[in-house]
Amino acid sequence: MGVEEANGLRFAIVVRSPAVSTRADRLAELTVRFGTNVQPGQVVLVAGEPEQLELVRAIAEEAYRAGAKFVDTWIFDPYVKRSRLLHAPEDTLDWVPPWYGARQTEIGELRGARIALAGDTAVGIFDDVDPTRSGKDRLPMTQESLRVTNEQTTNWCVVPAPSPGWAAAVHPELGGDAALERLWDDVEHILRLDEPDPVAAWEARIAELNERAAALGELDLDSLRFAGPGTDLTVGLLPSSIWFAGDFTTGDGLRHMPNLPTEEVFTTPDPERTEGHVASTKPLLLPGGISVEGLRVRFAGGRAIELEAEVGEDALRSYAAVDDGGSRLGEVALVDGRGRIGKLGTVFRTTLIDENAASHIALGSAYPFAVGDEADRARMNQSAIHVDFMIGGDEVEVTGTTRSGDEIAVLRAGSWQF
Amino acid sequence: MGVEEANGLRFAIVVRSPAVSTRADRLAELTVRFGTNVQPGQVVLVAGEPEQLELVRAIAEEAYRAGAKFVDTWIFDPYVKRSRLLHAPEDTLDWVPPWYGARQTEIGELRGARIALAGDTAVGIFDDVDPTRSGKDRLPMTQESLRVTNEQTTNWCVVPAPSPGWAAAVHPELGGDAALERLWDDVEHILRLDEPDPVAAWEARIAELNERAAALGELDLDSLRFAGPGTDLTVGLLPSSIWFAGDFTTGDGLRHMPNLPTEEVFTTPDPERTEGHVASTKPLLLPGGISVEGLRVRFAGGRAIELEAEVGEDALRSYAAVDDGGSRLGEVALVDGRGRIGKLGTVFRTTLIDENAASHIALGSAYPFAVGDEADRARMNQSAIHVDFMIGGDEVEVTGTTRSGDEIAVLRAGSWQF
């Protein structure tokens, strides 16, 4: 999809010169003007954590400069979540104040914008929490947030926000300030903010991904098989599964990039046709920053029937037990080796970045817009959760089987084969 | 009102030993257990600013320890408010997201608790903002917040939260850390946290204030006259005005201290019988930290007909112009010289503390529970705002006139005369 075709708007921003703005200002400008594409008169929700305050403020300032009517900042504190998990009665841990959901629902009704910051600021603070308790509290995620996403009423964008806590976890070998400086360098590289024209660089990459999504659609695949160390997994697709890149348009025709960075193409799988076993190739993070590492899952008839992990097993088990759909797939995504993330070889401990380093699947809620047919949409997975885990890498081969039964090589050593 | 009479609960907490807890922990314990009196199963709203995060976390932890079902932290950032005031279209500045009001209304319906932190963290950041614009944005205050207060459905408490920004404004002669240390000392003294048993000290002081409120009621006053430098003001009372100390009980019988510190007795005046002129004796603060200093107001027929200030005049004028009741009185309060605040001689630049240093009046919304009679309650002032300003001090004499026409000395040099 070209730029002009989407909504007649040309993203002609010039990201501010490093000489006259802070790193946060430049990241904010890319987020507001390009990623989210905030329009005059919009209400804009900005969700972050206390350590991300500098970027929250920079985004709010830029959103108001872009003409926002109101910027609603939601600062969610993981330390308060920890207090809840330690002390609150267990049967209350899945309770969510109704006004949290109302905020999401009403921003959808107002055709507002939503911006969320990623990058776990408080790594390890849940390590001593009973995992069956921690899995029950899914905040800051809400059901309404997933629903509004699926309704395509809001333009939205998730971006990484470097913070001291996150930097210390990603670069523990460096000191506090050096780790943060290094993480900012990483994030600027990953976000192509080190390019003379970051928006042009993104448009070029997204054009490639849109082209791959279209080509995958033309293959008319019935299933994908992932094969590599610890992994032999077949994921069935729905007859009308549609491949997408992270280049979205709202129902009202407003283009936005829901994730920055984005290096993936993805679709909605058949929730009843996942078979085999799979090993995660990077840690995954549950909301609030609970880490799951060394995950292995066995699927039969679409359901995760065995699940074990070196770290965080019980938390993931409790988390996925929220509903029936929590054990079935809602997404399958392919990532080639041409992106900037995988090459760094760094585990960023945040799904937003790590999922764009490697092909991945997600347990839980599916994207209805990635299904073309009403009957298939009725069959796609439904859940209150959506948790991505990374299963791809250079050692994992991805092979497709078409509806006519032909096998087609899809990815080998990170390169597209079609 | 005695302790046991209120709700059968004895506030038998022992504030944690300084040796084993931080200052924030001890302030949090006083706030949660004594001031707010959080009950098992309650939803607790904690509202603060980013610089107050340490205390927000300590309060959340203590509220969960007290059995809270959920602690909803609302971190309101004055810098984002500044961006709004600088850039958003002027006709949108009074818009409040409906979910902000819903949060207050629903916490009332749930019989929840509300805790708010005071102490301007960002002094001066609104100085270059157009005051007619800044007066239109009343956040973080909402109409629903005032309404829930008046419905007496929630137990609530406002406490001061020392922060670097506030400390720098109160003690500019000291350096950053020294100023903050000094402000903590001040706040601990004002909150009687420097007593071996702070709760016992508060119970003794509140018993005095309750006794004075009862005695004022027995005087059957028709009006109060304030006379001092720049001030000759008569405030008429309603026939059924009731004097209160800051020792509240919800409709369900749950005792709480809505302000800590509290050194005042107050009532709801007749909104049509304020006459004369008055000079403020301390700066007042509008929501978001906009300062008003050197204020002089002339009243006739209950209405503020002339208003001038050395600093912040236009902001106050715009703020009070919200509705008809914004120019009439909703509260009159008397403060004796036995409290801890006035003696310090410090301007704390926060209404919570400064209003308890000196007798004061408030423009805007009145307290319906401080009126005994339905007909009088229909006459009391109504407004979307409530802004206190300090008019008392050792040089201001307060004299009452009873309904039978007798003059009675009320306060002279800070001492009760009856």
Please render the helix and strand layout as text.
The structure is a homodimer of 418-residue chains.
Chain A: H1 3-7, H2 23-36, E1 43-48, H3 53-65, E2 70-75, H4 78-87, H5 98-109, E3 113-118, H6 131-134, H7 143-151, E4 155-160, H8 164-170, H9 176-190, H10 198-219, E5 221-228, E6 231-237, E7 244-245, E8 248-249, E9 255-256, E10 264-267, E11 269-279, E12 284-286, E13 290-292, E14 296-300, E15 303-308, H11 313-320, E16 329-335, H12 351-354, E17 360-364, H13 374-379, E18 386-390, E19 397-402, E20 407-412, E21 415-416
Parallel strand pairs in A: 1-2, 1-3, 3-4
Antiparallel strand pairs in A: 5-6, 5-19, 6-11, 7-10, 8-9, 10-16, 11-14, 12-13, 14-15, 16-17, 17-18, 19-20, 20-21
Helix pairs in contact in A: 2-3, 5-7, 8-9
Number of domains of chain A: 2
Mean pLDDT of chain A: 92
Number of strands of chain A: 21
Structural class of the secondary structure composition of chain A?
alpha+beta
The largest pleated sheet of chain A is described as:
8 strands, antiparallel
Distance between the termini of chain A: 20 Å
Strand content of chain A: 25-35%
Q: Low-confidence stretches of chain A at least 5 residues in length (pLDDT < 50)?
A: 1-14
Q: Strands of the biggest beta sheet of chain A: in what spatial order?
A: 15-14-11-6-5-19-20-21
The proportion of residues forming helix of chain A, as a percent range, comes to: 25-40%
Largest interface: A-B, 34 and 34 residues
> What is the 3D form of chain A?
globular
Note the total helix count of chain A.
13
Assembly type of the chains comes to: homodimer
Radius of gyration of chain A: 20 Å
